[in-house]
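ARCHIVE CARD
Drawer: 12
Card no.: 0347
Subject: one protein chain, sequence and derived structure
Cross-reference: see card 0346
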Amino acid sequence: DGKNLLIPSLQVGNYLTANGKVDLAFPNNSPNQLPTGIAGINLDLISRNVNISRLASLSNVIPPQATGLLNFRGNLSGAIDKLKIAGALQLDDVNLASLGAGLAKRGIVAPSRGSLDFNGSVSGYLSDPRLVGNLRIASLKVNQVELDNLTFNGVLDGISQVPQATGDLILAGLRVDKLAFDPRLAGRVNFN
């Protein structure tokens, strides 16, 4: 119809495939003129073992030096400045210290070490998604707090603002200023 581009199949290297459509933006909404940009998208995506540093241009929380892998199967849609995401998400071996610059921009003290894995689903606005699934953090150190293992199975909301969490939490090897807590703390958490 001259207002959008249909993408039957797109492959970027060996790490991203997509199909769907791109809606074009026209001056004064007049399709009789040349398009001036992209009004919105609706793409089904599959990404395989994408280094998260490739996402630095999409989020100010992810600096270019970030390390870890992302796998995603789902949909990205909406206006470019209000993209929505929905699908299955897996993050592997994300080095939390490598996120330091992005976390510091938000006033969050960056870990000096630690790794993160996540397996579950993501939905909502790309800038502030909801995560549902299993989160694992290992060998975490933030200032004087150290944690051998954290396992959380539940819902994480408000990631870009004030995080909210509801689910089951297990902490193992928690130490504050070298003072050890019980070897394992477990229970239901509702943080908001």
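Annotation on reverse: The chain is about 5% helix and 60% strand. The radius of gyration is 20 Å.
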